[in-house]
Amino acid sequence: MMALGTEQHGDIIEKLQDGRYTGCFALTEVAHGSDVRGMKTTATYDPNTKSFILHSEDFKAAKCWVGGLGQTSTHAMVFAQLITPDKKNRGLHLFIVPIRDPETLLPYPRVTVGDLGEKIGLNGIDNGFVMFHNYRIPRINLLNKTGDVTEDGKYVSRLKKESQRLGASLGALSMGRVNITCVCTKYISLAIVIAIRYCAVRKQFGPSLEEEWPVIEYQVQQWRLFPHLATTYVMTIFSEIYVRKLRSFQISLLTSENRELVSAEGMEFHALSSAVKPLCSWMTRDAIQDCREACGGHGYLAASRLGQLRADNDPNCTYEGENNVLIQQASNWLLGLWSNILEGKEISSPVGSASFLSDGQNILQLKFNHTTIEEVLAPENLLTMLKWLICYYLKKTHQQVVFLKKNGESDFSIRNNSQVFLARTLALVYAEHTLMKTFLDHLQESMWSSEEKSVLTKLGSLYAATCLEKRLGDLYAGGYASTSDGIDTLLREGIITLCKDLLNEAVALVDVLAPPDFIVNSPLGFSDGEVYKHMEQWILKNPENLERPSWWREALLSKL
Ligand SMILES: Cc1cc2nc3c(=O)[nH]c(=O)nc-3n(C[C@H](O)[C@H](O)[C@H](O)COP(=O)(O)OP(=O)(O)OC[C@H]3O[C@@H](n4cnc5c(N)ncnc54)[C@H](O)[C@@H]3O)c2cc1C
């Protein structure tokens, strides 16, 4: 509201800030989500009453999934197609719409609002729907920074194209994606804390009947968990730095005279957030699942919290841009840079996430030339391999685009047919590289002791080596490595060695990440490691767990 509104919205912003009003954000409709241009809710300006008439033609046009709308919000920011009195559709605009009376929480007449009902997770949030039936709101409720309607109904905008206006409105949402990345770091941290603490205590088998091993001692268990521990550290440090960078970008948005630079930074941040949000939410999804399985049967107890974490992280893959759709924004930006490079033009990457691409043709000539595990695991060598992969995917995706263009396919069809194994992977590797680079740059800061730096470097190497091991096929297929180089053995043995090295540090490393016990709130993951004591308390505290089923009389013959 602050990004897209003007002085006329000061009063309402103040009431939202001090809690007299509560707000929500209504973009998605029942029949349209990712493709926002398909939204059907209309806001028709009526110069006689100087108001907009909001209307949802049917249930398909109902706004839905809106967090906070189901039972509580008094106001919604609603995206609607703005229709001026000349019957022209001026495209999607944002309106502040009163939904409920703040005194009674009852909906206003001509507004149908309600809750979507139980969800897979996040049930603490009341996601709701709303329909408008020729519902009038004052003219000044339009957020009018990019486009406005005069009292007599003329449309005015400093941005000429509808796509620019929509871009400005949606651009204001970038911070939301960054926040999601931060939320993911909290979920992945909790999951890894619970799993590693539990696995350090849980014992099964051993070299002899007398000697049982904690399951974390097993190689396979380390390989299943420690790469996620490494990811958690890389994600945590990355997201902190990333938020700081974005905040200073937002300040320069308001203050900088250099509009060209700000615009280039804006595009890069948009591309970056469009790749990083999918990567982090997917890595968190995979980590939570592995943590759940790593805790065996007890991990399946609701009390372990792993199921809840899995369900709560799930929508991170969907909202603020469905991952598979959102990630296309990043690959489009990268492909644009690559086209410039091929034409011999300079490229602009003021945030620095893709500046290495200007050397892309040389990077593609590089060959794997390491002979020891130490060399392969050296962070700068792993970073080079990730850079090579980005250039490789750029080249392949660009070739596919050119091929489809030559075949006369439309832009829509070209984009659609260059995603799988190409543009999508490109954007993911770009995000993987950005995380690793940011993490390593941060390790150069003087705040770290040499011991801390040493263990953090191991974590960085494990993160990058794990990313690369999954793409060995491409490293061979693209000619970076040949079968005689032994890259597979060196990378894989490197991962196993790192896991072994980290064994003694693992519990301390999760203790660093862990919130206080009352937030961990899982008998498997409390800091004292007294898993069985806490499980017993948990199970016995619920009297129902010791009772016969409520229907026992119906099922037993004796009825006693
Ligand atoms: C818990 C939760 C909270 C939410 N909160 C809000 C909120 O507060 N406000 C709000 O406005 N919305 C909210 N949403 C809605 C959310 O933003 C949308 O669900 C999301 O943008 C995806 O849109 P969709 O559901 O229409 O999916 P669709 O766009 O219908 O996607 C369906 C599938 O099709 C695929 N697909 C679609 N287009 C393409 C393409 N071009 N190429 C390849 N694949 C494609 C997608 O990848 C997806 O797998 C929330 C959703 C959830 C789950």
Describe the protein's architecture and organization.
A hairpin with a 4-residue loop joins strand 2 and strand 3 (51-55). The chain has 560 residues and is of the alpha+beta class. Helix 3 (174-201) packs parallel to helix 5 (259-294), helix 3 (174-201) runs antiparallel to helix 6 (306-313) and helix 4 (219-255) packs across helix 12. It has helices at 10-17, 162-171, 174-201, 219-255, 259-294, 306-313, 323-342, 360-365, 373-377, 379-406, 411-416, 419-443, 450-469, 472-477, 487-502, 506-513, 517-520, 531-540, 552-555; strands at residues 23-26, 42-46, 51-55, 63-67, 75-83, 89-98, 111-115, 127-132, 135-138, 148-149, 155-156, 203-204, 213-214. The model has no long low-confidence stretch (mean pLDDT 95). 51% of the residues lie in helices and 11% in strands. Strands 1, 2, 3, 5, 6 and 9 form a 6-stranded mixed sheet that branches. 39% of the residues are buried. The protein binds flavin-adenine dinucleotide (FAD). The active site is at 320 (proton acceptor). Belongs to the acyl-CoA oxidase family. It holds the Pfam family ACOX_C_alpha1. Its cofactor is FAD.
